[in-house]
Each structure stands twice: as structure tokens, then as C-alpha cells.
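User: We ran a pulldown and think these components assemble together. Before we commit to crystallization trials, I'd like a predicted model of the whole complex to look at. Sequences follow.
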Amino acid sequence: MPKWGMVIDLDRCTACQACTVACMAENNVPFVGQERVEEGRLMQWQRLLTEVEGEYPQAITRFIPRPCMHCEDAPCVKVCPVGATYTNEEGVVLMHYGRCIGCRYCMVACPYGVRTFNWYKPEFNEVHRTYLNPDVPLRPRGVVEKCTFCIQRIERAKQEGKKVGSEGDVVTACTQTCTGGAIRFGDLEDPESDVSRLSKSQRAFRLLEDLGTNPKVYYLKEG
Amino acid sequence: MERSWRADKPLPSALSPLARTTPVYFLVVVALAAVVAWGVFVYVSQQLSTGLGVTGMNTPSYWGLYITNFVFFIGLSAGGIIVAALVHAAGIERFKPVARIAELLAISCLIMATLFITLDLGRPDRFINLIRYGRILSPLVWDVIIVSVYLIISMSLGYFSSRADLVRCLQTFPRRRGLYLLLTLGYTDVSPQALERDRRILRALAIVAIPAAVLLHSITAWILGLTKAQAGWHTALLAPLFVTSAIVSGMALVILVTLLSQRFFRLNIEEHVTVGLGKVLALIIPVLAYLLFTEMLTVSYAAESANFAVIKEVTLGRYAPLYWGLVVGGLGIPLFLLAVPQVLARARASVGSRPVPRALAGAGVAAVLAVLVFSASRGTTLGLNVGGDTTEFPIRFGVGAGLVLLLLIVAALAYPRPEATVEVGLAAALVVAGVFAERNIIVLPSLMQPLIREPHVSYMPTWVEWSLMAGVYALGVLAFVLVAKAIPLVEVEEEEPTQAPGDERLGRGLR
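Assistant: Here's a predicted model for the assembly, 734 residues in total across the polymer chains.
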């Protein structure tokens, strides 16, 4: 049984945010517009975090692409009162949109802030409607949604007998589009895979590791 | 042996609100109903049709005023059960006149809490999923279970403690026969054996109710406290803090509602009942202050970054007015009003009504207030910058408390002493408001200090949230006011000639 994971090399990240856009297109995530963003209702499953350290002229800006960490011990799964969020056999944390009651307990429990909530009915502009992905369900108002490691791609690849994770195979939308080749996706259980090799690198770390959530997304420190 | 109320006898005072209704009552009911209607209108036309987007909640302030109120009302419902338990389990007959009000409050506050959690759901239409798919590992499901159990216990308590009175109403008001048959569930046996059995059941229920109340408030705390993602919540102290806050605010509410309904419905409840409850309250307030102080000292001394950021936001940041409001107005002043009225009275007597010392005392009040406001606005205490961040807070706390004490003493000297019940009522109102502030400063600031920083951090409830909150509050008051016309708010006095001498004590408060 594979364990899907991701490695993001911060040295290779150019902060172009193509991953964010590709994710939104792949997963039917609506562009909410400036007004909603100012309300704090931005919806992005893969978001670029910016962190400014120090002050000019010593200031350094760090960029961290942040998908769901797909924790082995996911706090969100633990607290969900109705089992609307769950970890599948391959370690991917998923949502059951039809069951979610919208209590947002999972969002409160997620240390990484990766979950987004449908504060309004999702709206897609005319252009976006022409490229909605038929493989991904549209979410109703009032439920929580999140990064799925492009589960639809993984499932389709299985049906079509394609391989997932290595060079040229099926990968997540963010991995596929990453301009600097910073994002890798694959099977952490497979010792031959890029992700399992890179996750053991000296530069590898995970976000908020002390919390004991065991994320399956690894980062490689800027060298 | 069926007893019946003889027509030639005057109506007992406890039953008079049921028989006579003033125009003011109708006005109050209409006003409350209007607020409820407004709440329903806003809920349907705004929140149900547009979604939770009409609230001020956002990322990372996923929870807001609804959850704050949920926690607050879960807490308030404790007071009722605690007071009822004092009467039925511990046998403290002195508080018997407020037992009925306490039980009604326990039930209505619990229902209001449930309404608030429903308002918070993005998909209220799927509320039933909590039962259909309830996962026993989720603290939210523990809460669903304990709320149900607690509701059953408090309703049973209410039923068995009021059954005899309901039967009496059945006999007194034959026109409302249907209502009272329904309320008594048709069980109208008031023979001494039946009443004795009621008393035994009540005692057992009251004993079970105490651990249930503790569990209810602990579980509500654990919904927050078991979450490691939120600095400031993840402390083992949260459950004891919640239980204490619950008892403090709940008892204060019982006092407040008793005093208000006494005036409004002209009930006969003697002063010593509420003043006595105030004394019990004065014993618990320091426990709450102690727990808050322990938490603050632990976090600020260790200065672990995430927790420290939260406590800074609470004590010096945008929540400082609520925090210091709680410390001063919600704990300090009420404690002072409840615990030391005699000391104050003596001090007042020494000042007397001479104009010069009184004017001096008045000036003192103004001066201390000015210093407090000034230092709060500058984020310092007395303009002193005491030590580094780690030692600053306990010192600030101490200096602040000292100043407040000074303010109170001076203020007490400056003004004539109000009636004892006014003093107790004021203290109770301040405690209830203070604990509401406390609920906010526990729930909100932690959410605003996420471990992974968010670009957008602010939460201000919108008019929709305020409207729905007002609607639920009005609904709670309306329900209470309506119930007061159906069920006597104090136990009806025994006036049987065969009355045992021991029972006389019970009825004393009703004369």
C-alpha cells in the first residue's frame, strides 16, 4: 500500500505561485475576489506563505508553498464529530462533503491552517466555468474543503494502469506545474522514489514537527 | 389524601402572578417577541440565504460570538443545578425559595446554548448527522451526549420539584386543566407517600446532577483545551477554570434573575436568601481569580512564544479592555460588594455625612480612575515600566488589583450605602458580564494567534451576529416570563393545619 507524500525544495521555489493557480484550476476552487480576500475568506488549497524576517537592510523574505500536510496523526480527523474528514488507506486526508455539518472544528484543530470554508456559495466566473474539472465535485455552501493530493488523478491513474509519482508519471497539479521543479510527489513507502529519498535528506524538515502530527509533506531547507 | 384549595382562602402569594397580569407584562412580552421575530427574520433572510459569510468570522477566526455564547450559556446553566443541588441534595432549606428559578434557568440556558451552536453550523440542515454519524472520539460528540443527559436530569429535577405545585395549580385554576395535566404528565397523586417519593427521587437526581454539571463544563472546556493547534487553549487548567467560571456566573445569574423576578412579579423572597447566595458566590470568586492568575503567571514567566503571544494580546493587546474589565469589574468589585459590606458600613459611619471628607473621597475616586484609565491606555501600570516582559504581567496584575481596591474603598466612602439587595444584584450583574468577557478572551484571541501566521487577522461580529444573539437572549427571557405565568416561581407555601413544626422554616421566606 503506497503512502503518498510530498517534498518541497525551498531552494528551488521561485515563489511564482503557479502551484496555487494550477491547484485552483484542477480542483474547482473559486477565485473569490479582492473583497472576499480582505474579509479573510480567501480560498486556496495550495497557498504561498510569505514570512519577512528581520528589518531592512537585513530583511529576508521567505516563501513557503503550503498544501495540506496530510498528517499521519491528523488532529482534524481526530476532532471531526461526524467523520466527514478521514484518512484513506494511502494516507491522504480527505473530505466527505455530503456529511460535513460546517462546525469548523477541524479548521480550529489544524495547526497549519490549511482548511478553507465555504462562507458563501462558491461562484465561478464565465471563463472559469469553461474549464471546471468534471473529475472533482463542486462543494456546496457551508462545508469545509481542503487539498486532496489530487486524489482524482491518483484514482484515475489506477484505473488506467498508469504509474503515480515518478518522473513523467501522474502527479498532483502543483507538482506538474511547478516551474522550478521544487515540488515532488510520490510514494514515501517506496525506497526508490524521489520523495522517500529526498525526505531523508539532511535538509529535510517538516512544519511544526514538535506537535507530533507527523506530516507527509517535507520541506528542504534553503541551502 | 387529595388536598384542595378552598375558594374562600386568599390565593397564596406564590400563585398570584399566575392569576393576575399587569399591562406592563403584556408590553414586555410584546417587546421580547418583537426582538425574537427580528432575530428569526435576520436568520432566514441573511444567514440562511447567504451563508456564514454574513458573519464576521473568517480565517483564522473560525469561531466567533456564537461559540462564545454557547460556552457562556453552558456555563450559566450550571448555577441552576448547583443551587438546586444545595437545596435538594445538601438539604440547605434556606435557599429553597430560589430552587425553582434555579431549575428553570438551568433548562433554559441549556436550550439557549444549543440554539447558539446551531446558529454556528454552516449546515444546520445536517444537525442530525451528529447523531447519525457521531464519532465517539470527537469532544463535540461528548458534548452532545452530556448536554442531552444534563437536559434530562435538569428537566426531571424541575418536574419532581414542581409536581406538587402543578397539582395545586390544577385545582386552583380549573380552566387551565389541560395545561397542568400535560405538565404533570397526568401524575396528580399528592398523597404524603407520593410526595415523599418525589422528595427521594429529587435527592437522588440532585446528587447525580452535580457530577453531570462538572462533566458538562469540563467537556465544553475540552472542546477547546484538547486542541494543540491553538496556543492559550491547550492547558490542563482549562477545565477547572471553566467549571469555576460556570459556577460563579451561574450562581450570579440565579441571584440576578431572582431579584428581578421578585420585583417584576412581586414575589415574596426574603432578603437573606439572595444575600446568603451572594455570600456563597463571594467564596467562589477568589477561586476563579486564583485560577486566572495561576494561568497567567505560568504562561508569562515561562514566556513560551506561542502562548506568550496570546497572553500579550489578552492583557495588553486588543482584548485588554475585556481582560481588565473582568479582573476589575467582574471579580474585584463584586467580591468587594459581596464580602465586606459590614467593613464598608463601619468606615462609612466614621466619615459620616460631613461634606468635606465626602468631597475628598469623591476626588479620590476621580484621581484613581484617571490613573487607571491613563495607564490602561498607555499599556503600563502607573507609568512604571516594570522589568522585562516575563515579570511585567504579575506585577501589573498586583499593582492593578491594589489600585482597584483603593478605588473601591474610596468610592465606598464617597457614596451612601444602597440597599443590601441592590448591592448583591449589582455584584451579580457585574459577575455575569465579567464571565461573558472571560469567555470572549478565552475563545477569540487564541484563534487570532495561529501557529502559522495568517495575513488577515481580525474579527468583529457583524450586525447579523448581534441581531441573532439578541434574538436568542430575548427568546430565553420570553420563555422564562411565559413560564412564570404557568408555574409558580417559588414553591407554594404549606398552610395545612397538620403542618409539622420543622416545615415552618421552609415557608418563612414566603410570608
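Chain A has a mean pLDDT of 93. That may be worth checking against your pulldown data before setting up trials.

User: Thanks, that helps.
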